[in-house]
Amino acid sequence: MPDSTVIGLHHEEEHRPDLLHHFAEPQQQRDAASLGMWVFLATEIMFFGGLFCAYLVYRRWYFGDFAAASKSIDATLGATNTAVLICSSLTVVLAVWAAQTARRTLLLGSLAITMLLGLTFLGIKGIEYKDKFEEHHVPGASFSFNNVPIPGHPGQYADPRHAQLFFSLYFVMTGLHALHMIIGLGIFLWLFTMAWKGRFTPDYHTPVEIGGLYWHFVDIVWIYLFPLLYLIDRHP
Amino acid sequence: MSEPAKSEHAQSSPLKMYFSIWIALLVCTYITYKAAFIELGQFNAAVALGIATLKATLVALFFMHVWHASEKLTKLVVIAALFFLLLLLGLTMTDYATRPWS
Amino acid sequence: MSMPTPMPQPVERENYLNTRYGVWSWLLTTDHKRIALLYLLSITFFFFIGGFFALLIRLELLTPAGDLVQADTYNKLFTMHGMVMVFFFLIPSIPAVLGNFLVPLMVGAKDLAFPRINLLSWYLYIIGGVMMLHCMLTGGVDTGWTFYAPFSTNFTNTKIVEAGLAIFVAGFSSILTGLNFVVTIHRMRAPGMTWSRLPLFIWAHYATSIIQLLGTPVIAVTIVLVAAERALHLGIFDPKLGGDPLLFQHLFWFYSHPAVYIMILPAMGVVTEIIACFSRKRIFGYSFVAFSSIAIAVFGFLVWAHHMFVAGMSVYAALVFSLLSYAVAVPSAIKVFNWTATLYKGSIHYDAPMLYAFGFLGLFTIGGLTGLFLAALGIDVHVTDTYFVVAHFHYIMVGGAVMGYLGGMHFWWPKISGRLYPEGWARLAALIVFIGFNLTFFPQFVLGYMGMPRRYYDYSHMPEFQVLNVLSTAGATVLGVGYLLPMLYFLWSMRYGKPAPDNPWNAAGLEWKTASPPPTFNFDEEPIVTWEAYNYEELDAPRKEEVPVAR
Of B38, C291, C303, C524, which is most buried, counting CB atoms within 10 Å of its CB? Predict the structure, then answer.
């Protein structure tokens, strides 16, 4: 006599409340979540990849103009932001370790500091954007980039049109990155809330792990953006 | 006493490793920044991107635990994504690098 | 536990259709089978919309003069036809309907890996669809579905940003479906279901998912760039700033070429299942067919610039892409050879699914071969942007993908609905579709070869094109009738069709080992697989003893 409910399902639910019904074992559920996040990160690599492709094409074509434009953004702020994100990646792995080893205070603290560092990053980004706005380096009707010398070529000035291409890419690439950062902050706020409620145990802390993977990815994108956007041609 | 039944290699003290990687990443960032101000000609880009790749690799292998992943699949996913990214960049460049009129 | 259907089921069992009633039990479902049906309704709706635009196009082309609509309107018609058909019908069709329904069943799982993400993916599709509808109703887009820059970024004043966002959102639906399939196939296979025992339908959907995952993000970011250029004046493709319109084309086609493999690979998976079942034979060259699916997915990413041969790209790069385009045909050809070898000395049954499979074989082959014509630079220069190209891709998309979809819908209809469709009407409809299709699209090869450009609403400079255009339009009408019939008799069968047994075709595959329709959790007990795929010899063994066949 056919019965659609799986025999023993209710027993499992009693002992393993985090096991979703369509998985046979918690390990299967963990492996599925992990693979899912890695596959999603692969899609994100291709998403940013399109922008890197555009960047590559135009940097080759207009190297001097790009160098001039790159020089006009603050490399110290960029380097600082890179350091901020690297520190946040550390706090993320500490959070995962804390969840693995049932250290509630460390978990909450690491998650909170991660968010703080993320906000710091966005704050510094905001300052940079404000600077660009004031210098009329935001593409559009009020863009101006006149009489900016090309590094290493005395007497030659950057073509403002090509500089505008650089800044278009700069704003789209860093803007998209910042958007991912904001989403990451949202994810970590949710993780913090769940951790506060005591939802994570050494047996179940998958959301912290896969949230961490996402955050590290956002860090890696910035690791590439920093030299490509800020350090094209800095030597005097 | 519950051992987390994780697919990852159980580290006795991963903290030392995490902090070492952290320091390495900061040092690499510093080197990248400083090297940009040194005249290296064509190698400036190579150095900057090379160090960036090293940093990214460290983050992926040790912070994202790819190094100790018992599943080969994780590594395969990463390699596949990078492969297709390189396809996008490389094959596009076959056009841009061979336009005689550019 | 009573079922309010006019035709009472002989055995009352819980299944995914009768387990709960009410709109919310459908709109908030996480059951992959219900989500598949939600998709079925949605894509059928968009098929009608896309078909409506096609009808208007064909009506305009009945006469050489542009007398039905204005030029700008015609531009919108072919644009909306393309956008709706590609993004809202073809790309989701088989994966979102048949894939969603069958992947867990075929691997022996209770559901996909992420059921809630599956539901999210449907909602994203609907949101994208509503946005696209709104865009169409408030003016539409006139750039062609390819929305090339700088026309789309700088010169047109139609609703590019809205259409782009609609496609962006629908693209995420596609990405999430692919993600779900990959994780399910890797992690949720039943005990004993090794990779080499998987149905080739699964291999095909796995390959499709790879493309969806790795290609769609690139068009997503391209849409972001176009939207940024229009809305924020961030010019990346603007020639006035030194930007390159060809960069847009590279980024666009990096996705949109693999997209055509998203559209055809699932149909190939369907055809493989049908041919094996209706030849009563295991597929010839299982590994070859499996790996050719993966090869198509990978090679498909290497050929995109063959859409740009005359656009101004480097001729040396064009040589490279031309060569690679020949290479991508090889795995498809391998499949055709293997299907043919499967048919050889098979016990062929001409049920409706098999008629569609036969149609696929011939029409896909023609479409594929004409693709090779186009891959040759010398020929492409003459026939690019003519009706030759239009005929080529319709042979593959309609003669191939849609036929595969219809064949699959017929093959699995008993499993999905628990009812049998009327076989006589189904065979008639298949025939009408085949005739209508060829009448519509074969003349277009000739038209293109003779020089009729695509996307032209007026061909009064060459009135001799009219005869072929009239044939094509007549064919489109026949084709429309052919498409309407299954919609009518499938609906009819849900009330009046004979209840279907678990395995009406005596087919191989785990989905046939559970009830029609399946229970909510798919299997009464977790299956344990100990047999190879396509074990038709075992399935047919009793019958073979009864009826000895002289060889």
Answer: C303
